[in-house]
Amino acid sequence: MAIPFFKELKIGGYLIKQKMLGRKRYPLVLMLEPLFRCNLACAGCGKIDYPDAILNRRMTAQECWDAAEECGAPMVAIPGGEPLIHKEIGEIVRGLVARKKFVSLCTNAMLLEKKLDLFEPSPYLFFSVHLDGLKEHHDESVCQDGVFDRAVSAIKAAKARGFTVNVNATIFDNYPAEEIAKFLDFTTELGVGVSMSPGYAYERAPDQEHFLNRTKTKKLFRDVFALGKGKKWNFMHSGLFLDFLAGNQEYHCTPWGMPARNIFGWQKPCYLLGEGYTKTFKELMETTDWDSYGTGKYEKCANCMAHCGYEPTAATAALNNPLKTMWVALRGVRTTGPMAPEIDLTKQRPAQYIFAQQVEKTLTEIRKDEAAAAAAKQAAKEQKASTAA
Ligand code: SF4
Ligand code: SF4
After folding, report:
1. What is the pLDDT of residues 202-259, one digit of tens each?
2. 123-162 burial: b if 16+ Cβ within 10 Å, else e
3. What pTM, to 2 d.p., does this model score?
4. Ligand 1: which of 35, 36, 39, 40 to mutate, most ligand atoms within 8 Å of CB?
5. CB of 130 shorter than 6 A to ligand 1
């Protein structure tokens, strides 16, 4: 997801307003997942491992708009699953744009070219195309040949039609810095902005071997940024987040900065980690034990440096330290010298596993809904038959 926090005056204004109002916790981006179904099955994906009954569920357009209003964040990112599979996606995006939300529609681009007619170019709409690297690397990452060519063709078509397009890359282990640098050069040639995030170690991802730990992440990003000196890579991140990736900032995550709403409800505590669900956004904010999550506090957070947890931290840091922000903007990210101290992991609480329980609970609800719908249909049929008699 490309999330150009500092490029949009409106989002900057929102941040200042929250600070002036003295709010301790506030959302920046709503992560809206209207469905989990996808037309790819990437090895590092932690989002699609559900039974069909759950993959077939959709949030309605009205539920999506209500979630955006309830949350109040100035930006809505729509990942998934693959949002372009959703039959009402054009309507959902139109409704969000009409509400003056910045919309980042995250897609693997398999259907993008075909579905461009559903959308209209707008300063409020960005396509954020999943591209993990150059052809060979990307096709391997998404476990299907030909996806890179199709995505690049769709990016060109969307740009030609006047849409803003960014790409988002998830970075895993064994990806040499030189290759990442070549990929970033390619995004510059393509004329798109880019966001990059180390892959979060989803417990349900099929490939568990290639997630980066924090030490490797920092070293890798230092190497990448060193190769980028003097180049004009167009990152959709704040300078302080990039500085954090390079190990120069000791940040704790801000899980409520990008809250997630999906078919289960509002997800506790963040987009990456499903540890329970609430019915309302207010309930999410008020009942989540925020202090029990984050690196050093919870085992599942040990290696997380993902942008959805730490970009909001960097945004707050930028607001509180404009001089430091300017320093990084002028000098670039430091790629040598000592790193900021790493967070102590010795006191983190052990992981809890609720995935199976959540799936069972939702399947029971689905069965109940289906039984009620079948009973209503039968009753209507009987009523019709008795009226006819
Ligand atoms: S395209 Fe995205 S949602 Fe689909 S399988 Fe790949 S990572 Fe998961
Ligand atoms: S460290 Fe923060 S953002 Fe990352 S998984 Fe844990 S709670 Fe979520």
Report:
1. 888 888 888 899 999 999 999 999 999 999 899 999 899 999 999 999 999 999 999 9
2. ebbbbbbbbbbbeebbbbbbebeebbebbbebbebbbeee
3. 0.93
4. 40
5. yes
